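User: Could you go from structure to sequence for me? I need the amino acid at each position, not a summary. Structure tokens:
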């Protein structure tokens, strides 16, 4: 007499595994916090009774301002050589690397002076005004 099918490991391996809902990792939580914070600030600034256009433009503006502040904080902290393995610094690097890395490919460092944070801050301050002017052309 053979074993039952429920006992066989082959029958368990052949069944389709159900994918479980995965919790966001540290990097994803950081981005979620920034997006939620910009949504809250945008809602407060337009009084929670906005037109959708004003709310979205305000949300983009706050998102870019928060990222510009994070880039500025990273530039300041780079002068002091903090512990790069601590979770605040790793989170700061995770949030600012997507902005700074493409700019570092374009702009070389001048004798140890990295100008990419300055350019990133300028870009992040001009992006909301460009998007706002484009939105007002089409709306």
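Assistant: Here is the amino acid at each position, in order:
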């Amino acid at each position: 007499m053979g074993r039952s099918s429920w006992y066989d490991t082959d029958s368990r391996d052949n069944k389709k595994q159900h994918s479980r809902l995965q919790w966001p990792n540290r990097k994803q939580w950081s981005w979620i916090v920034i997006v939620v914070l910009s949504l809250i600030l945008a809602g407060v600034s337009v009084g929670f009774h906005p037109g959708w256009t004003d709310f979205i433009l305000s949300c983009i503006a706050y998102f870019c301002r928060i990222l510009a502040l994070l880039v500025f904080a990273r530039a300041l902290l780079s002068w002091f050589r903090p512990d790069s393995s601590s979770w605040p610094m790793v989170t700061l690097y995770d949030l600012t690397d997507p902005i700074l890395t493409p700019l570092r490919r374009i702009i070389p460092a001048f004798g140890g002076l990295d100008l990419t944070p300055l350019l990133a801050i300028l870009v992040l301050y001009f992006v909301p005004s460009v998007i706002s002017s484009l939105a007002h052309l089409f709306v």
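One structural detail worth keeping in mind: The chain has a mean pLDDT of 82.
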